[in-house]
Amino acid sequence: MLRFEISSQGATPSPDKTGTRTLAVNAAFLKDIKDDNQDLKKLLDQITPITRHRQTAANHWPELIALLSGLRDQLALHFSLEEAYGYFDDAIISSAELSTTAEKLRSEHSSLFASIRDLADQVSEVCSDRPEQVNRLIKRFDQFRRAFEMHEEGELKLILDFLDDD
Fold first, then answer.
1. CA-CA distances (angstroms) from residue 60 to 72, 109, 137?
2. Domain range for residue 136?
3. Entry pTM
4. More exposed terminus of the chain, fewer Cβ within 10 Å: N or C?
């Protein structure tokens, strides 16, 4: 593979080095973003027990609306920070596999955010005395939570893999 060196004259191939321009992560900064986002963790910790049972959710419906709205806002901030400072396009790395994993994980941000945004909007439009709608929204939150947890675990593994690759 060719590695491209960037200079004031433009990009020139440098065949004596390996690597390819791909997506990489700033592992240290991405880890800091994850470690420092206590508000996001707190919101998830508050929402999860409320959504374990339909009646609990119905009894705490106004609180659930506010919590999901807060979660939506925190995820917008969280993903914005990760994409602005945690991922780098056109980085020079030696592992195409790490780049592919990074691209997959970064691409999940938009679908995860859309999921919680839609859920926060829908929960504010539903009456808590409609059990079938409450159950449907609880299931959707549980699906989101599991997908988000898998995503976060994937990013933590990616951080470790990038640190090991250095």
1. 18, 28, 14
2. 23-88+95-165
3. 0.79
4. C
